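Hi everyone,

Forwarding the result from last night's run.
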Amino acid sequence: MCGIVGLHLRNPELHSQLGELLTQMLCEMEDRGADSAGIAVYGNEEWSPHGRGSVSLIDLDVAADTVAAALCAEIGAEVTATTVGNVVLASTDVASEVLLSAARQIYPGVLIGGFGEDLAVLKGVGAPQALAESWGLAEARGWQGVGHTRMATESAVTSSGAHPYAVGPGECLVHNGSFSNHASVRRHLRAVGVEFDSENDTEVGARFVAHLLAGGKGIDEALTDLTKTFDGFYTLLVSNRDSFAVVRDAIACKPAVIAETDDWVAMASEYRALAHLPGVGNARIWEPQPEVVYHWNRQEMSA
């Protein structure tokens, strides 16, 4: 049992409230998983300045200015870095993939929380409320965020086992449930060159989706392929900087609810995580159907 939350703000006047709203959503799901948690925020200029490639380095016990200097020397471009709780967030004017490669070269084995434009990923071990406070999440601005509270079932309680899994450029995946055939899918992905950071079953789903997206498939097709490939019980939320998509397994035993207004679109494992959102009393609210991909972007929600 884990908790998922996701929020996209259509109304720019609400961007200053993103962190506050996400904090309430995440903490409301703490009793669904209190061993670790994570959040991905899109559009917070202090963490990921607009137009710059960014990378999140988890549990790297190195001062931010030291990280910035080392990355600058490696890529030959100015790098800025800041420490947010247990995470070092670095950004530069070059592509995030270049920054990612440099970070891995300098700090072999470092856990990459995520990379891409306008994206900051924070995750770690501990109770969601304590982690949110250590990150100063309530002060974050932006237009979109996704979060997860974890109750470990398939792998150890570590930062590498925490969600979101952000393994493609700007992409994040959070998961409630378990994949029963993750070992066989992992072997197949490794055979085609995909590398892994953990033994977590969720990472297999994230790598599977990222592999298909990198090969040219759209998110609807990638998630449809996932429902045909993975066995188990799951609700998934997959995001990039402009959209998120939701899908459940064929039995749909893991809870999920979606709500939509003119000002925002939100998803959570339970309605109580949405109950404080502004205007929720007038929202269109529904439970996603089994194996139907609900994909929302800045224009519309489709199924």
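The mean pLDDT is 94.

Cheers,
N.
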